[in-house]
Design brief:
By secondary structure, this protein is of the alpha+beta class. About 45% of the residues lie in helices and about 15% in strands. The strands form 3 sheets. Strands 1-2-4-5-3 form a 5-stranded antiparallel β-sheet.
C-alpha cells in the first residue's frame, strides 16, 4: 500500500514538472516568491501575466498575503476579500485554472496543495447600438463578445428563476464556453435536450464564433438556408425565450443563436413588433415580394427572350429589341456578366474599410454599368432589372438568409436557359421539395405552411395585433400554451366605467 501511494505521489510530481516545464517556455508565464513577515511563511504566486489584472494582485491579493495570518493554505479563504477561492490537491487542473485567469498560490510547507484565486482581466468593448439589426424604434443595446455581459443583458430582461442557464466547454484547444438558455415550465424539454446532446457530441479543436455551432449542430449542414436564427439584439432573445425557444450563447461571439426556427422568421424584423400591426404586415409582405422579385426577375427575362418572346407585349418588345440591338451576347451570358459584376462589387465593398467600401459600391456600379451599356456589352433594360433585383435582395433582415437568396438566382438562371419558364417551374419544385424536407432541431422549417397550422399564421407573413398573440406557436410544443388571458387583454375600459 505504501509503495502504491509513493508511486502515485511520484506520478503527480512528474505531472507538476511537465506542465511547469512547458509553461516556462512562454514569456508571459510568471512565478514569484514572497515572504510573510508576520508568520514567517514563504509562498509562491504563479500566473499568466497576459490573463491577470495586475490591480487585483497589487490591491486585493498581495497586501493580505504579506501581512495577514497566513499559516496554511486554508487561511487564504479567510484573509482574502475575494470570493470563489478554490483549494485543490490535483495538479491535473492547474493548466485549466491558470488559463482561466486564476493566480495559483503554493506554500513551502504544503507543496501538494494549490490555492486558486480568480483575478481575470476582462477586456470588453462598450455596449453599442445593433449594426446588422438596427431599428429606429426600440432598445439600442446589442450583444458583445463577452458571454458574461450577454447573459447579464438577458437576465435583466427576464428576471425570473425559471430562466435556466446550462454551461458547456467545447474545443480541445480553444476551451470555448457555451451557454444554453431556456425557461423552465414553458420550453419543450425535448428541444432543450436536443440542443444539449448535439453540443456535448461536438468534437473539434477550436470554436471561434457562434457560426461554427450553426454549421455543426444544424439538421442539414449542406443546405444554403440557415436553420438557426442568429441575432445581436437582447430584446429579441428575451421575447423568443418567453415564447418557448432555446438560445445558445458562445463566448467570443456578439451573436446569439435561436432555435427551432422557421423560414418566415427570416423575413420578419424584430422592430415589426414596435409598429402598428397593419404597417408590420405591409412591410413583411413587401420583403417576401422583394425576395421573390430578386430571385425570379432575371431568370424570367432570360426565359422570355430565349423561348417565350411571343408573350412579350409589342410595345415592350420593341424597347427590348432596341436595347439589345448592339449586344453581341445571348441573354444568359449577358445576365451572368451583370450578375457576377454585382456580386464582385458586393464582395469588394464588404472586404474594404467602411468608407472605401461604400464608395466602391456606388461609384463602381455607376461607372461599370454606364460603360458596359455604352460599349454595347449589355442592354440598359437588363441593367435596370439587375439593379432592382440587387436592391430587393437587401430587404432581407437576416444577413445569412440574404446570402442564401443571392446564391439562388444562379440555378434559376441556368434552368431558365435550358427550358425557359418550364425550367424555372422545375427549379422552384426542387427548391420547394428541399424546404419541405428541411428541419430546425427536428421541427419543420416550412411551418406554418407545411404542415399547415392556421393558428401560427397570425405571426408569420402577416402580423396581427399583440392582443391576438395570446397562444405560443404550435411548432414549439410548449408546456404552457397561453402567454396571457386573451379575453382580458381585449377589454378596454374608460376611466369613468
Amino acid at each position: 500500500m505504501k509503495k502504491w501511494l509513493q508511486k502515485k505521489s511520484v506520478q503527480k510530481d512528474i505531472e507538476k514538472k511537465d506542465w511547469e516545464k512547458t509553461l516556462l517556455k512562454s514569456k508571459d508565464f510568471k512565478k514569484s516568491f514572497y515572504f510573510n513577515r508576520k508568520t514567517n511563511v514563504r509562498f509562491c504566486l504563479t500566473f499568466m501575466t497576459t490573463l491577470i489584472d495586475d490591480a487585483i494582485i497589487q490591491q486585493s491579493i498581495l497586501p493580505d498575503l504579506l501581512e495577514g495570518d497566513l499559516l496554511s493554505i486554508e487561511d487564504i479563504k479567510k484573509i482574502l476579500p475575494i470570493t470563489d477561492v478554490e483549494i485543490s490537491e490535483d495538479p491535473s487542473g492547474i493548466e485549466e485554472k491558470l488559463f482561466d485567469g486564476c493566480v495559483m498560490l503554493t506554500i513551502e510547507t504544503e507543496e501538494k496543495k494549490f490555492g486558486f484565486i480568480p483575478a481575470r482581466k476582462e477586456i470588453i468593448r462598450a455596449l453599442s447600438p445593433p449594426e446588422v439589426e438596427f431599428s429606429v424604434i426600440g432598445p439600442k443595446e446589442s450583444f458583445v463578445e463577452s458571454i458574461g455581459v450577454n447573459l447579464n443583458l438577458i437576465r435583466r430582461r427576464l428576471p425570473v428563476k425559471e430562466l435556466i442557464v446550462d454551461e458547456f466547454t467545447v474545443g480541445t484547444i480553444s476551451k470555448t464556453q457555451i451557454a444554453v438558455l431556456h425557461i423552465e415550465g414553458i420550453t419543450n424539454q425535448e428541444n432543450v435536450n436536443t440542443v444539449k446532446q448535439r453540443i456535448k457530441e461536438i468534437e473539434i479543436d477550436t470554436i471561434i464564433d457562434s457560426s461554427y455551432i450553426v454549421q455543426i449542430i444544424s439538421d442539414n449542414s449542406n443546405s444554403p438556408f440557415p436553420q438557426l436564427l442568429d441575432t445581436e439584439r437582447p430584446d429579441r432573445i428575451a421575447a423568443v425565450l418567453a415564447e418557448g425557444k432555446v438560445a445558445i450563447c458562445v463566448d467570443g461571439s456578439p451573436h446569439v443563436l435561436l432555435g427551432p426556427t422557421t423560414l418566415v422568421e427570416f423575413f420578419s424584423a424584430f422592430d415589426d413588433y414596435f409598429l402598428n400591426w397593419g404597417l408590420a404586415t405591409f412591410f413583411r409582405l413587401l420583403r417576401v415580394f422583394a425576395v421573390a422579385f430578386s430571385v425570379l426577375i432575371t431568370p424570367i427575362y432570360v426565359a422570355a427572350l430565349t423561348y417565350h418572346y411571343e408573350m412579350i407585349p409589342k410595345e415592350l418588345l420593341s424597347t427590348l429589341i432596341t436595347s439589345r440591338r448592339d449586344v453581341p451576347f445571348p441573354p444568359i451570358l449577358e445576365a451572368l456578366i451583370l450578375e457576377m459584376t454585382i456580386e464582385l462589387l458586393r464582395e469588394a465593398g464588404a472586404r474594404l474599410p467602411t468608407k472605401v467600401g461604400q464608395t466602391i459600391g456606388i461609384v463602381g456600379g455607376i461607372v461599370i454599368g454606364t460603360a458596359s451599356v455604352d460599349a454595347g456589352l449589355t442592354s440598359n433594360v437588363l441593367l435596370i432589372i439587375i439593379a432592382l433585383a440587387a436592391l430587393a435582395s437587401f430587404t432581407t433582415p437576416v444577413y445569412k438568409m440574404g446570402n442564401a437568396i443571392r446564391i439562388l438566382r444562379f440555378p434559376f438562371l441556368l434552368f431558365a436557359q435550358l427550358w425557359g419558364l418550364l425550367g424555372i417551374l422545375f427549379c422552384f419544385c426542387i427548391l420547394l421539395a428541399h424546404l419541405i424536407r428541411l428541419t430546425s432541431l427536428g421541427r419543420p422549417f416550412l411551418e406554418p405552411f407545411y404542415p399547415p397550422r392556421v393558428t401560427d399564421l397570425k405571426d408569420s407573413i402577416v402580423s396581427l395585433p399583440l392582443q391576438k398573440l395570446a397562444s405560443r406557436p404550435e411548432l414549439l410544443k410548449t408546456e404552457k400554451q397561453y402567454r396571457f388571458n386573451k379575453k382580458k387583454a381585449n377589454i378596454k375600459k374608460d376611466i369613468d366605467e
